UniProtKB/TrEMBL annotation:
Keywords: FAD, Flavoprotein. Coiled coil: none annotated. Residues 19-34 have a biased composition (Basic and acidic residues). Residues 1-66 are annotated as: Disordered. Pfam families: Amino_oxidase. This is Amine oxidase domain-containing protein. It comes from the Eukaryota. Its cofactor is FAD.
Amino acid sequence: MAASGFQHKYKTQPVSGKTDTKERGALRGFKSEDQESQTPSKRILDGMQSCEISSDSTDDPLSSGLRTHRQPRIVVIGAGLAGLAATKILLKNGFTDVTVLEASDHIGGRVQSVQLGKATLELGATWIHGANGNPVYHLAEDNGLLEHTTDGERSEGRISLYTKNGVAHYQTNAGRRIPKDLVEEFSDLYNEVYELTQEFFQNGKPVCAESQNSVGVFTRDVVRKKIMLDPDDPECTKKLKLSMLQQYLKVESCESSSPSMDEVSLSEFGEWTEIPGAHYVIPEGFTKVVELLAQDIPSRTLSLSKPVRCIHWNYSAKHQQAIAQSSHTHQGNNHNEYYHGCQPREDPLIFGHPIYVECQDEEWIPADHVIVTSSLGVLKQNHEAIVAIEKLGISTTDKIFLEYEEPFWSPECNSIQFVWEDEAQLEQLVYPEELWYKKICSFDVLYPPERYGYMLSGWICGQEALQMERCDDETPWRVLRSSWGSNPFIRGSYSFTRVGSSGEDCERLAMPLPYANSTKAPPLQVLFAGEATHRKYYSTTHGALLSGQREATRLIEMYQELHRTETTKPNNVN
């Protein structure tokens, strides 16, 4: 899921954003371990430490491997959509030495379909956003996953509704329902201002200082002025509309996965690109897409419950003692037979492996390339000093499923939107821990009832979502909830462009290590994929899938070029 969901359209923007050497150096501010020889190496989950390349090695290990016909050894970290997509393409193109390391005990990443009675519920990704050119849509359509999707589930309006049929009920904390005509009147006003937020990026419109470059600040200010200047509305109606504004911004925050729209960059908000077409639900569960991606990946390629502690790239010979000791100690669970035979005096660069992936179970896995698909939340947890990771935003959007024996809502109701009248004049919505539930923006009615029974799906984001994850269940009948924020292998739902960040930060995050201007080091050692690395489609499943394909293609094209170079070299004549 991604940016807005109130019948908004986005224009496709050209991808650009060149980065000079100085900026790139700031992005990947990893210190060489040779430079840090006086201090202990800091080990971090999914960390990336650059180690000085051995001065004794002048050959490019990849070219050497090509000449000896050795398959490059590739490690993919993460078995979500990005990791599986990358692995699938690599295997299809003849790369046979590929290993996928997944920290959790299942594949799929932020896709998690669960069975509750006869219904399949999505704790993570739920909708295919758009059809035309969307690889997730085509994968689902080509394999019959959308055959039982009803017309109502092909929503072209708000992206988080389970059905386009029916109407939303706006309920106040005083127990009254806001009239439909008043809701439509306010919705038109809000959408008009929303379109203005798109113009800053799409038309290059300068951002005024009063907005603080914040979508939330700008939207609140403009909508409030329009409400207060309306001569036809009595004061009670104006107050009600101001309360509805807060509710709309809560919905927007959930769909952007930001703690508040105040944190979302106004100048960059319009870059997120919507693929044309409807938003589709997969009745059998989004996990079916995961299974399709994984079906041609041999089981021996996947290692589950295998969290990574650190990636040592540009690995130097000085660490061989530690590696050899580790290999002798942990031979029982080390799947890499070559690694067992490595002696302390042997330099891995001689054998063409400039990288070692250090796992939490103490196994060290040699590789030529590593594709990192960890979530931005995990990267933030462990790499606070890296500029692009610092700038980009990620927060938690959670779902709460409630099942009832009988519905208390009317048949035409497709969602219940909560409007708190006491929040009309508040600038920022900050709740004490015991009032976390006030951040719930709405409950959507799952449709059709023949499939789901009488089920509601609630939405909550930010710090209040984390507080919800810590609560005990208070069950009306049956309750199910997601916990993406407290999941140590995810730490958030999806990314957004925070105030101070831009699409260029997505591109910087996607830049492989080492950089292209490094002439001595083996190229493309550490590559990055995942939804946060896609400039136009961040926060979506198709963005994740495309990013994995992008990095796999980057490797494939490099080896094709190496092969062409090797086969066209003239024979040396003595």
